[in-house]
Amino acid sequence: MKKLLLLAITLSATSLLAQYPPNAGLENWDPLTIFGSSAETPAGWLTPNLATGTAIPGSPNPNTNPVSVTKVTDRTEGNFAMRIRTVTLSFNPSPDYIPNVGGVAFVGTPIISFLPPSFKIKEGFPVSNFAPTAVSFDMKYFPVNSDVGGASILLTKWNGTSRDTIATAIQFYTSEIASYTATTINLTYDPAFTGIMADTCQVAFASSDPDGNPQDGSDLFIDNIVFTDPAGNKAALQEDGFMIFPNPSSDRIQVVGITKAEKYSIYSSDGKKVASGILSSEYISTEGLKAGQYSLQLESKDDKVLSNKLIVLAP
Q1: Omega before 57 cis (within 30°)?
Q2: CB distance 38 to 30 below 8 Å
Q3: In degrees rounded to 5, what are phi and psi of residue 228?
């Protein structure tokens, strides 16, 4: 499982729980047409699907690589989940990050240059004042033969010459898990770095152990990723550029991860606007709202509208 750990360790990564992987709800998927591929990939995540493109330097045309990561409606929340399938690649633009035989998904961005031709990976997402105690997600696993899947979340910090690992949360799957199972992994903090805050959060999932005997067709399903803070509050990893904390809420919420929002609106589940105002601070009151599910929309100065689910509890 060394490559899975390497994926997480090398992933480059703002208030407690203010950071999160982009699109960790796995609702938004981007087409890969710019890379010459008909496949798509979760927005903000890197997958072997990039290796299906014909516009990547060095790639064959036609490119016969199979699609590894797909959007599925078999999910626990929202509209979609992510299925990671182990495949064999005949062309691999980044073997240091993507196994030739395997299935992986991790947060990051591809960087492609054509003059001169090159393919690089910009991994992870930055964090600060971020010290979660656990990460939870819904998963199920269908290994072929004796395959092994896994999940890895690490917090690291650049010390000037290399990265120190502040905390780890790693889990392996060695047998079939036929139904979605709520899974929690506790982060273990290294006492050698007590008082030092991470600058990077790393998240990686794999359907096979690339250092073992990876089997084509092994499937790992992932949905609904949530971090827990030291007080036990849970913050869902939202998919549209910002996070609501706490969520659910009974009196007020904090909007984190966005700096350009100017106005907000709250809509009930039947589409009626029930609250709105100017976002003068990062806090929005939910007092007066009935218990239930709502949609919080933020409007930026450039008229961009972002939306995320909000759950209000009875006071």
Answers
A1: no
A2: no
A3: -120, 135
Same domain, 178 and 304: no
- Tens of pLDDT, residues 217-273: 999 999 988 877 665 555 544 444 566 767 778 888 877 666 566 788 898 887 888
Write down which residue in 204, 232, 260 finishes a domain: 232
The enclosing domain of 121 has a CATH number of 2.60.120
Q: 272: phi > 0 → left, psi -120 to 50 → alpha, else beta; which?
A: beta
Residues 67 and 152 in one domain: yes
CB atoms within 10 A of CB 111: 10
130 and 267 belong to one structural domain: no
Q: Do 194 and 281 share a domain, yes or no? A: no
What is the widest separation between alpha-carbon atoms in the chain? 60
Joined tokens for residue 47? 């997958």
Domain boundary (195, 212, 232) is at 232
Quote the pTM value: 0.70
Print the domain residue range for 266. 240-312
Q: Which of 213, 206, 173, 210 is nearest to 96 (CA)?
A: 210
Q: How far apart are CA 190 and CA 170, in angstroms?
A: 14
User: Residues with Cβ < 8 Å from 115, sequence gap 6 or more?
Assistant: none
